[in-house]
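Field guide to reading this record: the first block holds the primary sequence, the second block holds the structure written as discrete tokens, and the final block holds curator observations. Each block starts with its own label. This record concerns Fe2OG dioxygenase domain-containing protein, catalogued under organism Piloderma croceum.

BLOCK 1 — SEQUENCE
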Amino acid sequence: MDACQDTDTLIALVSSLLPVTGPVPDSAVILDALVQSDGDANTAARIINSERKSTGKTPVKKRKRVGDLDDWLKSSKSTHNDADPKPVASNSKVSSGPAAPGPSKNASPSKLVNLMTVLRQPLPAVPSIPRLPPLTLSNPSLVAQHTPCTLHLSVLPAELACRLFYNMKDASADWQRNKWWLFDKVVESPHRTSFYARSQNGVDGREDWQEAAQYWYNGRKTEPPSVFSDAMEEACNYVEKIVNDEMRKRKRFPLEWGGTGTEGQMWRANVAASNCYEGGKESVGLHSDQLTYLGPYPTIASLSLGTSRVFRLREVVPADEVSTRRARTFNIPLPHNSLTIMHASCQERFKHSIPPQTAIDVYRPLYPPAHDVSNETSYNCRINITFRFYRPDFKPESLPRCKCGIPTILRPDMKHSDKVDKYWWCCYAGAQNDGKGCDYWRCMDMKSEGRGPCINDTL
Ligand SMILES: O=C(O)CCC(=O)C(=O)O
Ligand SMILES: [Fe+2]
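BLOCK 2 — STRUCTURE
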């Protein structure tokens, strides 16, 4: 996921721009305003203010505003954040879920100075381009028309989908909340996650992916990843078929993986990451997935089980187009047993999130589970499994190491202003090392780093 942008700072900024007399809006409200304003704090503050003026009240209020930004930062406690760390240095665009207030009570003055410095920066001129309202894409053809994703409904046999839901829900008791450093405090993701390696013919043994699993948890030392359960394996076979059928119909990008599987498949899954969202408040913030092991233009297949939640997509407008058009937010409701394929270019051009929801429909499984639960039981939990192909040419030992001596992460240049795809290797140590990393970054060069084969090598 994108590691260099920081929504917490933006939320603090917006909050500081609101009149001190009113109540402080909920961070989710500020975040929505930031999304609408394309990450511009000034515009976001104006949106909240004009809503206040027109309705006479602040959207959702949690506590009284007590003073200025300094007071607010000093008195705030950590709540939650995105599934990936975002090192400190950013004042640009929105990236995280309903995010948290700033540093903890004992925040060092130097950190506060940094924030205040950000605050004093002149705000960029807002281009007078009409804002686009969010669009709900309620069926597969709308999703395909507007986004680089496809939506597939009822993808698994109904019994398997229920069995996998129970299986993963039980396993989720051991899944973790991701933790990382932000400023001088440790923040925690607002949902639980886990990482699985697929063991097929001994090729993708779990040992190979120990380091990759570790990096799913932001570099924290972990046990070797679990292997796919029987139900995951069964589901994965259906998913691979759908993905390959879909990819055959699509334009391929030059830097996509150009190899094929043992049965000639274009795409297969060798790892999976899972997420569990309990209730409507659990979420993941706007991000794009880290490309470290996926390489450029990955295809990611995301299976939804249980409670239906909205999947939000938002384009990152290239730098040379920001003065002529605005990004649009797309909301896609994802029902039980649906598959969302994030096709090649989605991670480079769009960010995605599962936003918090004030209301959700509970999930009532069609099939009773093997264990003792009645048919009447309902669940407010969503399980997500993202099946991924970790490329052999981006295997852990091939990653450059930064000055801190740890493997770097790969990020796309989402602003791609000169229309040439660029990717950067960046230091990742700050996520775990008391927030302290190094300034290492390097442009990724497929050829000189000996990576491939890519689609352009096979033409
Ligand atoms: O739960 C989802 O559908 C999205 C999860 C996600 O974005 C991720 O695991 O990177
Ligand atoms: Fe993601």
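BLOCK 3 — OBSERVATIONS
The chain has a mean pLDDT of 78.
The two ends are 30 Å apart (CA to CA).
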